[in-house]
Design goal:
homodimer, alpha/beta, seven-stranded parallel beta sheet, three-stranded mixed beta sheet, 12 strands, 16% strand
């Protein structure tokens, strides 16, 4: 397969590129380093600095013999993106090229506008490049479980049949998200669905939960191939933040009551899911929605696991809830379906104590880089 | 009340401005003439040319004694829009400032991108201007009944309670539209709802059907105050197109089977609805959705009424279905609720034979302006 990965320098993009290349596919990547620029601007750089995408590809070639093609440019520039599609003729385009931080999208007008413009325009341009240049290309779009929010009913995989006043019809599952970033993913889905049903495009929209993990078979080939690890309040997910706080001896910053429950998955399972989606594409005119996570935890459960494993490893781990900077339900019903990827063949890697221990070890090996100024939330979006 | 009308030069914007001014409110208008530019670019200029917004305001002042403030500028320019809100301190902002043509949004990449960028950015900027400068300002947003599409279940007014596997919750009514233009209105609603529930904004989202009519009490004060009348395939609604075709002796161009059913309303009822919404604002944190139409017709019913009235007036009116240039259901279930505006006090003006006759007379008085090149659809969005 010819696989085009948009956002190839990201936490998911880079491991995905190595994974497809190691399986013998022709891999093309695009990135404009937006995440690196925002990380620099907001003092949110990763714990472990990583080479740029060109250097990563060169390093990977030297250890694996596999080539990853790199184009540096902006998916919001349609002439550029179209020329990439023309040159690559992809069978599959994996679209990760979005501003991925919820807190960043909630800072101020400028960051909100950048998030809205960047994410919608990138998705719009991918749709048009496929429609104009590669109509048989399967789009795999990274959505988020956050599109659904935390409704009081069971969350289905993308679609729901609604019975109403004696009649029924099938609709996209209702979505209402907790940040502007998550809301842009809702808008992406709406845009994709419009163009899918109008022009018969083939799209898989992956509703992914937060991903954790730093090790993949390919990343393990050389320490400089490690995925990005952010532990700050802008780009760091809760797992990364807690692991880093445990190593640094800073009490784990549970936001509010800590009952916020989400579906999580291991980075290796993201790679499996995307590969499974690529190998059995959506049909023309189908918007296939897959809920991509393997197990669900509350924030309190994660904090307790980090405390348990960290304490056993000799770290002093306390848990100190802080005022929640976000507007979100801190205790809620949560029962999302996630069977379709299992049916396609996903073999989950769970968040065991061993996996947690490995993350703590990796972070401990770079503890000298931990900057306590990055720990506490800097963005509030409560009234 | 201090009323700010965004898109004040439009088919609805200009009559709305005159209506609020004549009731003694302080009226401020903004427009960047986007519709005039697109009409020029696409050879879609109105049947009756109208003075620019500054001249319209001057004329209206001379016949009514009422002042309408005019700012020429782009709602997508946040510095400009924010300065307008600062200067006006509106109690109510009526947001019509969008690219309103479905066919234009479906021409090509450039027109689609313009529609997406313009409509989303204008809405985003209105939200931020209110949040930053005028948090007690009630936003009245013009949505469209087209957001709902033509589902197989009854359409409620914006919200629906879904019972699912023994639990229930309330959600925005599912929406899937027939053009990119209509889809941008769905995205607008999603954006508004996110910011409403996060920051407690006050928003009324009017799901309006196609509007017809050229006469309002204020427009009747001087012929140069007439609302815009487009009869082309880009900006002309089906009523305008049929009325013009009847006068020109061109067979009425029913698209496909003609069973496409929508809710319609008289321009005077739009003015009533907006005034009713303004005088009883949404609550803080409420996204109030009102379905704004008074009666529903199929395309065939409209064609038959135009034929009946036109023939009686001496026009030779034939009906000749043509291949449908749009991807849409030509026969479908349609049962949308529309009781909330009636409860607020709306007194409907129906599409009687007299009203149809008046439109035919007005168009006949300008028949020398009818350009047959504007009659047939120039944009297709079928596969």
């Amino acid at each position: 397969m010819r696989v085009l990965i948009l956002g190839g320098d990201g936490y998911l993009g880079w491991p995905t590129a190595m994974h497809f290349a190691s399986q013998g596919h022709d891999v093309f990547t695009v990135d404009n380093y937006l995440r690196r620029r925002i990380a620099l601007d907001t003092n949110s750089e990763p714990l472990i600095s990583t080479p740029n995408l060109q250097e990563r590809a060169r390093l990977f070639k030297s250890v694996s013999g596999r080539t990853i093609d790199v184009s540096i440019g902006d998916c919001c520039d349609y002439d550029f993106l179209r020329s990439v599609f023309e040159r690559c003729s992809p069978d599959c385009a994996i679209h990760y090229a979005e501003q991925p931080s919820a807190p960043y999208s909630m800072c101020d007008y400028r960051t909100a506008r950048l998030t809205l413009d960047n994410n919608l325009t990138a998705t719009f341009n991918v749709i048009w490049a496929v429609k104009d240049v590669a109509p048989r290309c399967h789009i795999i779009k990274l959505g988020t479980m956050g599109e659904y929010g935390t409704p009081k009913i069971d969350i289905e995989e993308g679609w729901i049949t609604i019975e109403h006043k004696g009649r029924s019809d099938r609709f996209l599952f209702p979505r209402q998200a907790g940040s502007l970033y998550h809301t842009t993913k809702i808008l992406d889905t709406d845009l994709l669905w419009f163009y899918v049903r109008t022009y018969g495009l083939m799209v898989t929209d992956l509703m992914q939960g937060p991903v954790y993990g730093l090790r993949t078979p390919e990343a393990d080939l050389d320490p400089r191939l490690i995925p990005n690890f952010h532990y700050d309040d802008i780009f760091g997910t809760v797992v990364n933040r807690f692991v880093t706080q445990a190593v640094a001896g800073i009490p784990l910053t549970v936001y509010g009551k800590g009952g916020q429950t989400r579906g999580y998955l291991n980075l290796n399972d993201t790679l499996q899911c995307v590969a499974l989606a690529a190998s059995s594409p959506a049909e023309p005119g189908q918007l296939r929605v897959l809920n991509q996570f393997t197990e669900q935890f509350s924030v309190n459960q994660l904090a307790e696991q980090v405390q348990r494993v960290g304490t056993r490893m000799g770290f002093r781990v306390e848990i100190t809830p802080i005022d929640n900077p976000r507007k979100e339900a801190e205790e809620h019903y949560y029962n999302p379906a996630h069977s379709e990827l299992l049916k396609l063949g996903l073999k989950p890697h769970y968040l065991t104590e061993d996996v947690m221990g490995e993350m703590l070890e990796t972070v401990a090996a770079h503890r000298q880089n931990i900057d306590p100024a990055k720990i506490m939330p800097r963005v509030r979006w409560k009234n």
